[in-house]
Amino acid sequence: MHFTSYNKAKMIIEFTMLLSILILWPLATRNVAFDVIVDIRTAITTGNSSLLMRGAIQNCMLFMIPSFMLYMLMESIGLNFASNYIQSRADQMLFVATTYSVLLLIINNLSYYPMELMTAALGMGITLGLVYFSSCENDALLPKIFIGLQVFFLIQWINMVPELAKFHIGMNDLSTSLKIASLHLGSNLAQLALIYMSPLIISSFLTALLIRLYIQNLKVAEEKHQKEMAFEEMQQHVMNNRIYQEINALAHDLKTPLATIQGLISLLVLSKDVSKIESYGNRIESSISKMSDMISSFLYGDARELVSVEHLLQYIRAQVPLEQDKTKLLVDVEPDLPILEINKVRMARALVNILENALLAPASSEVKVLEVKAQHNMDGVLISISDNGMGVKEDDLTRIWDIGFSGKNTSGLGLPFAKQTVIENNGKIDLESTYGKGTTVFIWLPASDKGVQS
């Protein structure tokens, strides 16, 4: 906290007001002190010891208020001032306690009647200890008020215990008079004081404990929120990378029709045969249409076209690089499979991702074997992609669909993207794996109800 002109002015006003109240408090409560004296005299003459209890409560309030207000003065001003120059929280507390003691002595000398210095000092020490235990921030005044009110009120009751007089506790005129009257009437004011103190001691400690737990829960919630924000940011970054990869893949796929168009245009320029113009033009138009479909499929996730399973697998096969001596790809397609209505480009990328995952998995033998099967299943087609890799550990089976999770030092995007794409195309995806034996991914896609491929 850095002190601006406004903060300095505010601090001076607060300090002046609180200090004025502290000095004027004894004068403003002279009648209350007189009432306590009257109650003591009446109790002695009438033998009514209950008047002593009323006087003890008034006596506690008389000395509790200035002690507590001086504490709040230190909390609202002194601690903020200390935090500007002292780093250690324990040292800040020590500074506040020392300043409190000095001001207490000054105010005590200026007051109409002397305060209970030892009681006020004990109250300050216990309150600071509980505040420190509760882990309150410097500017969190409300929790400190709850703790301070309880502590400063309960600590005043020890003024009623005669045995503590040797420690200079309960030495002011009113407290001494109350204890003498209690002994004279044979009432045990000290025992009643301890009865009052016990629940307040428990209450103040529980208040500090609850505040501590509340603050810890807030910190845990804040840390969790920060981690969630960081994770979301990481996911966004990862998805941006995924989009970049997809654009690269699309650019690679567009090379084929572009090369076809370029070659055909070159042939048209060089060819003298006019009869081939129509044929070349149709092929150029077909390539342009193919490029347009690819771009549309990439840009619009809901774009659909009728595709045969054989055509889809051929399209995928052209995009998966295989090392002939180390990788073996087996494709088994049942005859007469229904036509699919899907986003061909995205679905192809999803299946390529699954195949690339299988290729990256460590093989259980020298030759990596990938097996792709397509067969009838209910009202659609079931495509399964199996490998003879090491499989997925059982503990990781529930995490494989999470963005960013990877057991092979990859981006962790392939399977989440595949799942999202399959679901977008009204399909279902599942994975079965036995660690040490291999993995199989099942993709079910519904058959189109629009007839044959156009």
Question: Mind explaining what this structure looks like?
Answer:
By secondary structure, the protein is an alpha+beta fold. It is built from 12 helices and 7 strands. It has helices spanning 5-28, 30-46, 50-85, 89-110, 117-134, 141-155, 173-185, 189-270, 277-299, 309-317, 344-360, 414-424, and strands spanning 305-307, 327-333, 340-342, 368-377, 380-387, 428-434, 438-446. The strands form 2 sheets. Strands 2-4-5-7-6 form a 5-stranded mixed beta sheet, with helices on one face. The radius of gyration is 42 Å and the shape is elongated. The chain starts with a helix and ends in an 8-residue tail after the last strand. The mean pLDDT is 78.
Task: Describe the secondary-structure layout.
Layout: H1 5-28, H2 30-46, H3 50-85, H4 89-110, H5 117-134, H6 141-155, H7 173-185, H8 189-270, H9 277-299, E1 305-307, H10 309-317, E2 327-333, E3 340-342, H11 344-360, E4 368-377, E5 380-387, H12 414-424, E6 428-434, E7 438-446
Parallel strand pairs: 2-4
Antiparallel strand pairs: 1-3, 4-5, 5-7, 6-7
